[in-house]
Amino acid sequence: MRRQILTSTTALVLLLGAGNAYAGMDEAKSFLDKEIGDLSTLSRADQEKEMQWFIDAAKPFAGMEIKVVSETIATHSYESQVLAPAFSAITGIKVTHDTIQEGDVVEKIQTQMQTGQNLYDGWVNDSDLIGTHWRYQQVRNLTDWMAGEGKDVTDPMLDVDDFIGKSFTTAPDSKLYQLPDQQFANLYWFRYDWFNDEKNKADFKAKYGYDLGVPVNWSAYEDIAEFFTGREIDGKKVFGHMDYGKKDPSLGWRFTDAWLSMAGNGDKGIPNGKPVDEWGIKVDENSRPVGSCVARGGDTNGPASVYAIQKYLDWLKAYAPPEAQGMTFSESGPVPSQGAVAQQIFWYTAFTADMAKPGLPVVNDDGTPKWRVAPSPHGVYWKDGMKLGYQDAGSWTLLKSTPTDRAKAAWLYAQFVVSKTVDVKKSHVGLTFIRDSTIHDKSFTERAPKLGGLIEFYRSPARVQWTPTGTNVPDYPKLAQLWWQNIGDASSGAKSAQEAMDALCADQEKVLERLEKSGVQGDIGPKMAEEHDLDYWNKEAVSKGNLAPQLKVENEKDKPITVNYDELVKSWQK
């Protein structure tokens, strides 16, 4: 099976040939034979049935040339290089699927929204923009589209309820605005072999008085980081933590990707805290943002947020390789695979395939990993019922400024690349799961031992606590850029954690105030609250059964707790 997954698709692309004028079932069967094989949750008969539907639905658009865009990750490269030419050959719709940097995708979709110029016919746009899309109403809501204007081009076998990220792309009006194409989470990563080494276990127990294991809370993570930093393993000194700190746009993702929620910022609620979310933005009963700073009932500069930033700073300085301070996201990513890092609290599962390559210092001779992934530990302010981390959900988005016929053709392509026919194979390439049926496919049961716990996590009940940015954020492009600029001041030492978060929440409120003044988002746009002190807003929150903003905890180093990884996995299976 492994060999089949990695088979070169060059011959397939040449065979299908995007310029082939004879689109139809022969091309579809060729694609199924050479690319999909038995890697599908559908039988071969149902695969052909789904392909026939695409062929028939695409006939009115035969010969049309469309352009779609996504960020550059392995999943989208596969779509661009393999699935787009296959779709073109099968349907006669010529698709150009561009892959560009994530920041460029956000910038370009913002440009199309502002100018109305149709830059692309379809977008794989992060679901982090759900609050933006719902409030500006510049994208087609897919619930109405599939039942109305786009009904004739909506796959009867699509099965929207099979998508595990559907709740991320549904707005407070209960409408689906985006359809997930790929997802990956931020999890805890650790050296399973080192954690099970008898001497390491004995030395840790002797020093800290409890068992070395997967940390449940930040206190345990901190102890483990201290224990491994400077310890000699296999003849070299190792580090107990990895992160990055360069003042760069990628530093913003490090924090908007739900770092504060792990600490305990915001309120309880899945997929996002309400009324205060993990960005610290508070909304009223009508989902209108009312503030970001504690002075307006927000939590961006509250004790939980400041604690989150301070721990990030302390751990980066004390337990990570010295060069990490000057690294960006992309530079830091490969470091754990080099074999000198014991654990990483904030690790994107998009790195799984690269971290599992044979021959790496972190991979055994038999191809199994020396590492595992597990749920992230939480901070002292975290309570049961809160989200625990981030899940990226790049999702198909159709702008209203795209002409209807072009939007229909793009929607056909979007459904093709997320179809049940294609999804298992695509998921083996990119490991970015979107369908429940795919996660439970037997091929992933077979492959699971080589993926370090990724499959076990996605099959577990814990999965629902990892969610993207939610609907409290009214303008993601404008607000997200403020994070790296302000937190970068703390990372560089120019400001304290408190000063950086004070500046960040003030900057966020300037954007909220401009949106309120403009009235551009109507009756679901911001409506700023009056200012009061922390005690006032905490009492108001508690009186309504909420949490945020929480008061400062006197002892932020709570009792450390760890669990045995193997027992944790068994508990999921029960």
Gross geometry: globular
- Could you name the ranges where pLDDT drops below 50 across 5 or more consecutive residues? 1-21
Our measurement of the CA-to-CA distance between the termini, rounded to an integer number of angstroms, reads 28 Å
* Rg from alpha-carbon coordinates: 24 Å
Number of helices: 25
Give me the secondary-structure category: alpha+beta
Q: What proportion of the residues is helical, as a percent range?
A: 40-55%
Largest sheet: 7 strands, mixed
Strand content: 5-15%
Number of strands: 13
User: Whole-number average pLDDT?
Assistant: 94
Supply database-style keywords.
disordered N terminus; 25 helices; two-stranded antiparallel sheet; alpha+beta
Describe the structure.
With 574 residues, the protein is α+β, with helices and mostly antiparallel strands. Helices cover 43% and strands 11% of the residues. It contains 25 helices and 13 strands. α2 packs parallel to α5 (74-91).
